[in-house]
Structures are given as structure tokens and as C-alpha cells.
Amino acid sequence: MKDPNTTVPIHPALFVAPGVAPEFEQIDKYTIKFTYPFAFQYALQSLAAVEDTFAWPKHILAKDHPRYNANATYDDINKWAPWWSGRNKVTVAAWKMDSISADNTLIRLERNPYYWKVDSEGNQLPYVDFVENNIVPDRQSVALGNISGQFDYDGTWVGNQHLPLFLKEKEGRNLEIGWFNNTPGMAIYMNYDSKNDNIRGLVRDIKFRQAMSLAIDRDAINRQFFLDLLDPTAFSFSPNSPYFDKETGKLFAELNIDRANALLDEAGYKDSNGDGIREYADGTKIELVMDVANHDLYVPITEFLIDTIPASIGIGLVMNNQQQDLIFERRQTLDWDLHVFDIWGSTAPLAKLEDWVPVSKGFPFWNQKASEAPFSPEYAEFSNILLGARGLDYDTRVSEMKRANRIMTENVFNLFVGFYRRAFIYNSKLGNMPEEAMRDVAFGLLEGPMRPEQIYFKK
Fold first, then answer.
1. Mean pLDDT of 125-154
2. How many alpha carbons fall within 13 Å on the CB side of residue 457?
3. Which residues partner with 243 through β-bridges?
4. To the nearest whole percent, how much of the chain has pLDDT over 90?
5. Residue 280: inside a domain
6. How many domains does the chain fold into?
7. What's the mean per-residue pLDDT of the chain?
8. How far is residue 216's CA from residue 187's CA, in Å, rounded to a whole number?
9. Which of 22, 238, 357, 446 meets the CB 3.0–4.6 Å disulfide criterion with 450?
């Protein structure tokens, strides 16, 4: 039963229907029984997606909870950092929390002696005794730290924008370059519940959404920002997913300015005063604010779109660039228009349902009122497919999810530039590092064949 005094949420991956989680009871010291209200084929995967936030060690954290310690407060609990508050000292992961530096710039994880994996010869994993995570101020510092040997690996912050630097510096250094295949590029989310009546009506107009997607010059973005390593794609599940279909992924992903303008004309958005920007029915100029956090790739792409889209189809765009925490605070309100960010969970959408459908109130962030009233019948159908798919056998699930993917791309739920081969860098002294891997946050960011617990230092 959830404690009503804490704001720590139930992980959305546990929900089997909007607001409905399975019942569970403790059978004995080592056994918990889960009871689902209907057949739920996806049970193990859903629990795997929440392993870092589901089980918290009572013997460590009880001292911080008012129920067990009169000196503890709920204010302190609700201010906890997501995972370095101490609960990671007991974990099923390969490493557990050891310490955090006083200035919060170095997090040390030590080997978990009770980790549940062994290698093919029976050796206990992980091989590496401890891991140090450095927190640095910007991406350039991460890239320079990898080149100088300060860091052994980074696959989170460096990318193709640093690839020329890595290639130039690779000779004579202990550097290797790997690739994450089909990494999601930049997405642009639309606020379907905007407090502004004009904006809410605009983004709920399918012709506007289709026109915006057709006005994105993905080929130019590929050349300028992705070094020709981008595959232009619509807002879609990932090619790494069994739910992807190539033809579906290309819907409204081509540059077609004439068709985009025709769609906006059909929808009734005219430029009556000849200033180059279309107006709403009440004569107000259409001008949308694009929220984008400080990012050395997404900011220049946003600037490119602001330069090209108003000139080509007459939709005004203005950039709001702030620190990421401020941008994230804004997106939890209804006072934003467009939000630039990643696609999360595109490889395993059923493990990240909160980013796609209304598993509970306030989700997804781009249609926060979807649990009350989805923005369109098509989105309601899409949501019902995803919410029901986890109870289906594999083959039926794949078929239904492909149908959902087509509904999403045909209706352009949000905007997207495409998937790309993303560079990462590592120290050549590391053994068992794959040359190619995948990224998806649903199961901890790094996916096969990247297996951090099997990485070791060569002699």
C-alpha cells in the first residue's frame, strides 16, 4: 500500500492498467507473490524494468522513515536523490553504492559479492572490483577526459559531435571507438493539453502535425549534425525493436514543403497580412516556443529548425534554452508548447509505458490529461493496444504493436528526426568491450551486447 505522505511514485512499469498495479504479499523471508488481475505475459520484463526502484532495503532506510524513526521527516524522504540516497547499498546489480564525494562530483560503486551472474567458466561476476562515476560540468569536459585518459569509458554524453576529435586524437593514444546502433535522435514533443486554446487546437490538428513533420529537412540535419550517420525516420518505435516496420517508419519523414503548405491551407491557417507567418482563426499570429535544455547537439538543431520552418511553411518558432532541470520543471506544467528531448523506451516501449500512454494520472507528459480524455480517437486506440499488449503471447503482441506503431506514425503523435549510429569512446585496455551495442533506458540504458559486468582490464 502506498504511503500517502510521500511523493515517491509507484514505478509506471508495474501498472497493468491505468492506475492498477498487481497485488503482492510476502510469503516468507525470500519469497514475494505477485497476483495480476488478468493474464500478464509481460510480468518478468515489467519487473526487470523496475529493479532499481522496486525493492528498497528496510534495514538501511528505516532510519530515514518517520514510521520507524521519530526524528525522520517526510520532507527529507521526498527530497532524496533518485538512487544515491543509500538504498543502492543493497541491490541485485553488479555494483552497489560505496560513497559519494563531499562535492558530489565522484560516485564510487563497489563490487556486489552477491551478484547473481557467473561467466561460462563459473567465475563470479563482475570482474571489476569498483567503478568510479565522475560528474563533470559539460559534454566537452567528458570528451576531453576520455582523450586524456582521465576516464576509461563514456557512452552517455559523448557522441557524433565529438567524433572528428576522437578520430584526430586516436593515433598514439589508448583509445577505441565503438557504435550504438539505431540510437534515437532528437524528438520534438507537442503539448496536447496546453492552457492556450489556440495552441491546444493547433497541435490536436493532424494536418498541422503532418505538415510540421514534412517541413523538417532531415537530410540537411543528417549532413550538418550527424555526419551522414542518421536514418531519417518518423516518430516511431526503434529498428532495434521487433515492433518496427521500415515502411511505417518513413511515413511523413520526407521533406515535402509543397504538401506541408497544402495541408496547412486545407486546415485554414492563412497568412492574411503577408508577413510570412500564418494566423489562427482569430487573427493571432502562430508562434510556438521550443523548450530545449543546454545540449551541444539539440540546441543547434533547434536553431536550424527555427531558421527553416517559419520561412518554408509560415509557422513561427522561438527557442527557449535553459538548464535541463528548469526545462523539465516546465514540462510537468501545462505552460509549454514544444519540448525537445530524446525518445525513451523506443526499443522496449512496453517497459516504458509511461512515455507512451496513460498508465496513471499525468502520463505521458505530452498528454497529461490522457487518462481523463485522450487527445484523439486514434491515440485512444493506440493506448489500448499498448496497455493490452503485455498480456498477449509474443507473436500476437508483435502483430498488435506493429499496428500501434503505424497508428502513431500516420497520425504524427510527435516529431522526430531519426535513428543514427552513435559513437562512443573507451580505453583500449578494457577487455570484452563490444564494437557495437544498443542504448535504451528501459532496462538501464545499455543493452546487448554491452555487458559491463564482463568488462575487465587487460594486463
1. 90
2. 8
3. none
4. 61
5. yes
6. 1
7. 90
8. 12
9. 446
Q: Is residue 455 part of a domain?
A: no
What's at 199, amino acid-wise?
I
Q: Determine if the peptide bond prior to 137 is cis (ω within 30°).
A: no
Q: Within the chain, what is the greatest distance between any pair of CA atoms?
A: 75
Is 322 within 8 Å of 294 (Cβ atoms)?
A: yes
Please tell me the distance from the alpha carbon of residue 404 to that of residue 388, in angstroms, as a whole number.
11
Report the CATH number at residue 352: 3.10.105.10
379 domain residue, yes or no: yes
| Among candidate residues 89, 83, 27, the one with its CA nearest the CA of residue 57 | 89
Query: Which residue shows C-alpha cell 510527435?
Result: 414
Distance CA(364)–CA(434), nearest Å, equals 34
Structural domain that includes position 376? 184-419
Edge-to-edge strand ranges of the sheet holding 415-416: 316-322, 287-293, 338-341, 187-190, 415-416
Top-ranked range on mean pLDDT: pick from 54-63, 147-156, 292-301 = 292-301
Region 303-313 average pLDDT = 98
Residue 326 lies in a domain: yes
Q: Which residue has the higher pLDDT, 89 or 399?
A: 399
Check if the beta carbon of residue 335 is closer than 8 Å to that of residue 195. yes
**CA 390-393-396 angle, 5° bins:** 95
